[in-house]
């Protein structure tokens, strides 16, 4: 894939380096050439100095044949403008903008612009920690509305199979870990004490999940 990244702060540099190390072609755009020093020695992509929504700058970065575009500078307006240019003018197939303001993020998401809001994601993670009071694994998916949570099955729960567990509320069991082995479970699989389940659920359903698995009693 060919990826253009606007913003070479900590996030942009880390993203660009990771993509480059995995064999993707990457171009990074930033106003300050000094910011490119954040890129690791393993980065073998290109760097372009300029404003991230300037059409000629983006052309210099190869946006006309880009498969993906990420605007991750420290400015919401910059990211939104750059993403709109990439999406509407250059028709880049995948365009993502980092937006710190949750209101702006929701507004532009409603208009069809894919945004990632670290403020919302962090708030949801902290909220989930309070609600289930555990050290289980959490990952809030982009958009902040859906979360992956790892929980432990106990025999005191009335449900005994994957299908019965899923019927307790609106969530989906993604994987089952037993004795160190992780599998994709079938609906009829019978659960045993200590099984670890990775479930996908809406963030708003965390209190229900907490009640089902009695996580606050641990």
Written account of the structure:
With 218 residues, this protein is α/β, with parallel strands linked by helices. It has a six-stranded parallel β-sheet with strand order 3-2-1-4-5-6, with helices on both faces. Strands 7-8-11-9-10 form a five-stranded antiparallel β-sheet. The chain folds into two domains: 2-116, NAD(P)-binding Rossmann-like Domain (Rossmann fold); 121-217, 2-Layer Sandwich (Alpha-Beta Plaits). The chain is 32% helix and 25% strand. A hairpin with a 5-residue loop joins strand 7 (138-140) and strand 8 (146-152). The termini are far apart. It has helices at residues 10-21, 55-60, 76-89, 102-110, 118-132, 162-167, 206-213, and strands at residues 2-6, 25-30, 46-49, 68-71, 94-98, 114-116, 138-140, 146-152, 171-178, 181-183, 196-202. The chain contains seven helices and eleven strands.
């Amino acid at each position: 894939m060919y990826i253009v990244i606007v913003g070479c702060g900590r996030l942009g540099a880390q993203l660009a380096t990771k993509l480059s190390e995995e064999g993707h072609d990457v171009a990074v755009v930033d106003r300050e050439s000094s910011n490119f020093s954040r890129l690791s020695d393993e980065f073998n992509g290109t760097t372009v100095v300029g404003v991230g929504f300037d059409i000629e700058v983006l052309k210099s970065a190869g946006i006309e044949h880009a498969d993906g575009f990420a605007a991750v500078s420290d400015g919401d307006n910059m990211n939104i403008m750059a993403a709109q240019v990439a999406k509407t003018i250059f028709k880049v197939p995948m365009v993502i903008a980092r937006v710190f303001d949750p209101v702006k993020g929701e507004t532009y998401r409603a208009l069809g612009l894919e945004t990632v809001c670290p403020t919302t994601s962090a708030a949801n993670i902290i909220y989930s920690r309070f609600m289930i009071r555990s050290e289980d694994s959490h990952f809030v998916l982009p958009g902040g509305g859906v979360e992956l949570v790892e929980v432990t099955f106990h025999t005191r729960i009335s449900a005994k199979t994957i299908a019965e567990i899923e019927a307790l509320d609106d969530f989906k069991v993604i994987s089952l870990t037993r004795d160190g082995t992780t599998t994709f479970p079938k609906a009829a699989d019978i659960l045993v004490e200590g099984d670890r389940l990775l479930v996908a659920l809406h963030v708003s359903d965390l209190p229900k999940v907490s009640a089902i698995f009695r996580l606050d009693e641990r």
